[in-house]
Design goal:
Shape of chain A: globular
Strand content of chain B: 15-25%
Bound molecules: flavin-adenine dinucleotide
CATH topology of one domain in chain A: Enolase-like, domain 1
CATH superfamily of one domain in chain A: CO dehydrogenase flavoprotein, C-terminal domain
Largest interface: A-B, 34 and 33 residues
Helix content of chain A: 25-40%
Oligomer: heterodimer
CATH superfamily of the largest domain in chain B: Aldehyde oxidase/xanthine dehydrogenase, molybdopterin binding domain
Shape of chain B: globular
Order of helices and strands of chain A: EHEHEEEHHHHHHHEEHEEEEEHHH
CATH architecture of the largest domain in chain B: 2-Layer Sandwich
CATH topology of the largest domain in chain B: Aldehyde Oxidoreductase, domain 4
Radius of gyration of chain A: 19 Å
Strand content of chain A: 15-25%
CATH class of one domain in chain A: Alpha Beta
Largest sheet of chain B: 7 strands, mixed
Strand order of the largest sheet of chain B: 3-5-1-12-9-10-11
Number of helices of chain A: 13
Number of domains of chain B: 3
Distance between the termini of chain A: 50 Å
Number of strands of chain B: 26
Largest sheet of chain A: 5 strands, antiparallel
CATH architecture of one domain in chain A: 2-Layer Sandwich
Number of helices of chain B: 14
Chain lengths: ~325, ~700
């Protein structure tokens, strides 16, 4: 690893100043960033450590729940307010990584984590995300973990986060600060599809930082479920994951929120399926139809064709769990 | 043999692991932790191409990087004396920095030595190598037809070849086991420190200090006595540390050239290319039987991968020659040379792979016969060794089937696949048998009784985890009647009396016998001293004090008796699995596992239980998740880390039950104990595949059984 400078930030303003200079990166839990440095994917000159900023709070707001960027994944997953108001977020967090990692990982770091595509990780291999113009190693390579939605001719990587799938389903907002002050961005708009710029994962500008997220209050707490299908029971990235929040009245779905992980360059909201389910009764048959709608436009590659079957199966299964049919 | 005693043993009885406290408190010092004065650090740089030659190497930036002492490549590396003789064989071990040829991706092309590990690591990234690329093959599946018989290897034929084809009921199927990597927790490591021009000490991760001593002595043309190898604790090895690898030679070379102690620890990624693996293997199994299940013929073919420079062979098909009574058996084994590094034995080498074909095949045959898979095995039980006709020294396999069937609840199995569910999950039961030769070699043990009544045991053997020291303590305690906490064991050092490399499930049998014999001799001496039959009422300490002796010491070499050759000696295992399979997502959960070992007397119940449990977990990895994947366009691994190469974690493993027949083998050794390290894994993957079939009706013949293969 290249030698680098390290400073501790004392204010968000200080962070913004630091990252306005090229070669400077924010470090939070470091569980993703340091790996990238060790693998030689990036070689920053300077790290600005934000862990000492007062951005750890989990607090109720007028119409929602605010979670500071430095709240640890483990802390958020066990927080009483989160468990009470947004259990889906807790479930998704607990499905991610391992307890050790969750004890280090932060909300902002989790949102900003980069793909686990193995071609991205190996500097010997071509990768348009790591080095634009070198090609995509995965497209005709070992693409078992890769996207079935929204990929481009440049990149078929997926976003690896579990937490983000729940936040996308829950209509969270990302709170961002930059030179022009604070702003909010809908979570579903935060991450990008690869298009012609796979090197960009999201819409956060280089000189901006995340302060936290806010989740609006909802009626999903009783009927939420996060299903993660993976190669082993824990500590593996999703083959496919599904976050479901249902607002159920009797057997009728008043409204539904669904998002998938492991299928696209961003947490993948299933708007069509949500629309279909609104007003329907919670039956396995309706769930299967919703799952079929969700699969429109899916496209598989050599090794991930199984996701075309697994994804709708997982959606149906998650809906059954959320509605209590299982 | 007179020394056999009935030993009572259950999973909860017996000694705690004697070095357990040291290990869990961090006081056990592993090879990488001997931070001798002036230590410098070596880091390897690997080839980024898969085949060809090195054109140029630009190491200037690395040489000039902070803290760098030297960069060695084939261009400037001091010659390894033992590599200068013309090779005696056409193929042989890869010789580091010997020439500019590239045989596999990741092959070390340079060694950087610096004053800190981090600086060496950084400098290694600065080395620029230009290559002339050549074409290559890394995919066994598309090269099966290129397989050749190994040298000295003959196809095995007993009775009629391919007789299974004539049987009224038959199956013929192909099975794939991908490359599995040992991946012990402890990374391979060496610290080499020359004590003069012709003398050195190494702290090494090795399964055999004497093997390492021999290899280093040969490579550097030294008197083996001048190579002191120390390896008191080893954090798992499973076969990967059976031989001396090129990173070890490189570290010794650099330490000599720099006249400084050099430490070299492989990275996790290097663990995939520097220390061997279980080879990717294709198998074809033909089984034929009469309608009542009597086997008519077994035909077992296998093609395993090896490197371009060296032939690695294993007994993949041998299990089919040995397991069942069958008049007609033939096997063929082929090697396919690919642009990969050489495989190496991995727990249950050969048999663990072969058992997938044989034991899945038997399950498929049982279905074709509409017969219970245990009944099919009992019908074909071998009462004498099918290969030689010799009687077995001991065999209680039928008892093992019964014990396991009862413990797993085999009676709850519904033969019809996909017919039972629990909470929406499909339920399946499966079983698989394992066997492995029971060996006993030669070992020397020093036993020393001190005036305070405590006992020291010393021998060179290393303990790679099974609990060798604990077994030695158990045996000595029993023979001498000395309490276990009064016994201390010193092992893992080439300066101690010779004993074999830890491998082939033979150490308890071999070293344990020497402990037994040394203790028996010590007791004889004490008897002589005291002049009475059992030492009268005098304690050992009193006898020594009465004769003014500070200590009493014997060094005893023990080896197998010629009588043993009259018998066929094997250990057996039967693994039972109950699995749950999700009908739509294809997720497989092991719900319950029972493994039964028939391996003679259990000398150390707790560590024996750990052995079986560890082996079952390794077999579970083999069956459900482990697979090293190469992108054949590049010949390069794409999952050489613990995030992507999945080994089982706690959540994958339910309560495992380890059961022992625990009946002594009268012929193998004084304890009546046979090995169990390998049988713990052999047969597990087949049991899983068979259970998944019972649950789903889907037969997955290319392992591992991941969810995508079941939907
Ligand atoms: C072996 C392994 C397994 C894993 N498995 C899973 C899994 O199953 N599911 C899952 O979801 N995740 C998994 N993870 C990923 C883990 O969740 C992330 O590494 C973690 O969330 C990153 O958080 P961090 O605080 O450590 O981020 P860091 O590593 O500190 O930072 C990551 C990135 O975020 C940027 N950043 C951090 N904070 C801010 C901020 N406030 N504003 C702007 N930029 C910021 C950093 O500059 C950096 O680019 C796994 C990780 C590992 C190593």
């Amino acid at each position: 690893m290249k030698q680098f400078q390290y400073t501790k930030a004392t204010s968000p303003q200080g962070v913004l100043e630091a990252i306005s200079k090229p070669g400077t990166k924010i470090i939070a839990g470091g569980t993703n960033l340091v790996d990238h440095m060790k693998h030689g994917l990036i070689a920053p000159d300077k790290l600005v450590d934000i862990n000492h900023l007062p951005l750890k709070g989990i607090t109720p707001t007028k119409s929602g729940l605010h979670i500071g960027t430095l709240a640890l994944n483990s802390v958020v997953s066990e927080n009483a307010l989160v468990l009470q108001k947004q259990p889906l977020l807790s479930m998704a967090l607990k499905a991610g990584a391992s307890p050790q990692l969750r004890n280090m990982a932060t909300v902002g770091g989790n949102i900003m984590q980069r793909t686990r595509c193995t071609y991205f990780y190996d500097t010997i291999m071509p990768c348009n995300k790591r080095e634009p113009g070198t090609g995509c190693g995965a497209m005709e390579g070992y693409n078992r973990m890769h996207a079935i939605f929204g990929a481009s001719g440049q990149c078929i990587a997926v976003h690896p986060s579990d937490m983000c799938v729940a936040l996308a389903a829950l209509d969270a907002q990302v709170i961002i600060t930059g030179k022009k002050g604070e702003k909010r961005m809908p979570f579903t708009d935060f991450h990008r599809l690869p298009d012609d710029h796979p090197e960009l994962d999201n819409h956060l500008a280089k000189d901006e930082m995340i302060l936290g997220v806010e989740i609006p209050d909802n009626n999903f707490a009783k009927n939420s479920y996060y299903l993660k299908v993976r190669d082993r029971q824990s500590y593996a990235f999703a083959l496919v994951s599904v976050a479901v929040g249902l607002d159920l009245s009797g057997g009728t779905i008043r409204s539904a929120r669904l998002a998938m992980g492991g299928v696209a360059h961003k947490p993948w909201r299933l708007f069509e399926a949500e629309k279909f389910l609104a007003g329907k009764t919670a039956t396995e048959d309706n769930f299967k139809q919703a799952a079929q709608l969700a699969m429109q436009g899916a496209k598989a590659y050599e090794y991930n064709a199984f996701k075309l079957k697994l994804a709708p199966a997982a959606i149906t299964e998650a809906l059954k769990h959320a509605s209590g049919i299982v | 043999m007179e020394n056999i005693k009935k030993r009572k043993a259950s999973a909860t009885e017996g000694l705690d692991r004697v070095d357990g406290r040291l290990k869990v408190t961090g006081k056990a010092k592993y090879s990488a932790e001997y931070n001798t004065k002036g230590l410098v650090y070596g880091v390897l740089a690997g080839s980024t191409i898969t085949s060809g030659t090195i054109k140029t190497i630009d190491a200037k930036a690395a040489e000039n990087a902070p803290g760098v002492l030297a960069v060695y490549t084939y261009l400037n590396s001091p010659k390894i004396p033992g590599y200068q003789d013309p090779p005696t064989q056409p193929k042989g071990p890869f010789r580091i920095f010997d020439d500019n040829k590239i045989y596999f991706n990741g092959q070390p092309v340079a060694l950087v030595v610096a004053d800190t590990f981090e600086r060496a690591q950084y400098a290694a990234t600065l080395i620029k190598v230009a290559y002339d690329k050549a074409s290559f093959q890394t995919d066994l599946k598309s090269n099966i037809s290129a397989g050749v018989s190994p040298r000295n290897g003959k196809d095995y034929v007993k009775g009629q070849e391919d007789a299974y084809k004539t049987a009224p009921v038959k199956i013929e199927q192909e099975y794939i086991l991908p490359t599995d990597v040992h991946n012990p927790m402890e990374l391979h490591t060496i610290i080499a420190n020359w004590d003069g021009d012709d003398k050195l000490t190494v702290w090494d991760k090795t399964q055999g200090v004497l093997g390492t001593q021999r290899s280093i002595a040969q490579a550097f043309k030294l008197d083996p006595k001048n190579v002191h190898v120390i390896s008191p604790f080893v954090g798992g090895a499973f076969g990967a540390a059976l031989r001396t690898w090129q990173h070890e030679i490189a570290a010794v070379m650099a330490a000599k050239a720099l006249k400084k102690p050099v430490k070299l620890v492989l990275s996790r990624a290097e663990m995939f290319t520097a220390v061997g693996y279980r080879p990717y293997t294709w198998q074809k199994m033909g089984l034929g039987a009469t309608p009542d299940g009597k086997l008519v013929g077994i035909t077992h073919e296998a093609s395993g991968q090896t490197s371009m420079y060296e032939d690695f062979t294993e007994g993949t098909v041998n299990i089919s020659q040995l397991m069942y009574a069958c008049p007609n058996v033939n096997t063929r084994y082929r090697l396919v040379s690919l642009n990969v590094n050489t495989p190496t034995p991995m727990r249950g080498p050969g048999e663990a792979t072969g058992a997938i074909a044989l034991e899945c095949g038997m399950d498929e045959l049982a279905y074709a016969l509409n017969m219970d898979p245990i009944d099919l095995r009992v019908v074909n039980h071998a009462d004498t060794d099918p290969q030689t006709g010799k009687p077995y020294s001991s065999k209680f396999l039928k008892d093992a089937y019964q014990l396991g069937a009862d413990a797993i609840g085999w009676k709850n199995r519904n033969r019809k696949p996909a017919s039972v569910t629990e909470n929406g999950w499909l339920v399946g039961y499966g079983m698989g048998t394992g066997m492995f030769g029971a060996y006993r070699g030669a070992a020397t043990v020093l036993a020393r009784l001190l005036a305070d009544g405590t006992l020291d045991l010393e021998t060179a053997v290393t303990d790679i985890g099974p609990g060798t020291g604990t077994a030695m303590t158990n045996i000595a305690s029993e023979v001498m009647g000395v309490a276990a906490d009064k016994i201390s064991v010193k092992i893992g050092d080439s300066a101690l009396p010779p004993s074999p490399t830890q491998g082939g499930s033979s150490v308890t049998s071999t070293v344990g016998s020497a402990v037994n014999d040394a203790c028996v001799q010590l007791k004889e001496k004490l008897k002589e001293l005291s002049g009475t039959a059992e030492g009268g009422n005098l304690s050992y300490a009193q006898i020594l004090q009465a004769h003014n002796l500070p200590q009493l010491e014997v060094t005893v070499t023990s080896k197998s008796s010629p009588e043993a050759a009259k018998y066929a000696m094997y250990s057996w295992s039967v693994h039972f699995m109950k699995v749950l399979v999700h009908p739509t997502t294809g997720v497989v959960k092991v719900d319950k596992a029972v493994s039964v070992a028939d391996c003679g007397t259990i000398v150390s119940p707790k560590t024996a239980r750990s052995q079986i449990i560890g082996g079952t977990i390794m077999g579970t990895g083999m069956g459900l998740m482990e697979e090293a994947v190469i992108d054949h366009r590049y010949g390069r691994l794409v999952n050489n880390d613990f995030a992507n190469y999945h080994v089982p974690i706690q959540a994958d493993i339910p309560q495992l039950e380890a059961l022992f027949v625990n009946k002594p083998d009268p012929y193998i050794n004084p304890m009546g104990a046979k090995g169990m390290g390998e049988i713990a894994t052999i047969g597990v993957a087949a049991a899983l595949a068979n259970a998944v079939f019972n649950a789903t009706g889907k037969r997955v013949r290319d392992l591992p059984i991941t969810p995508d293969k079941l939907i």
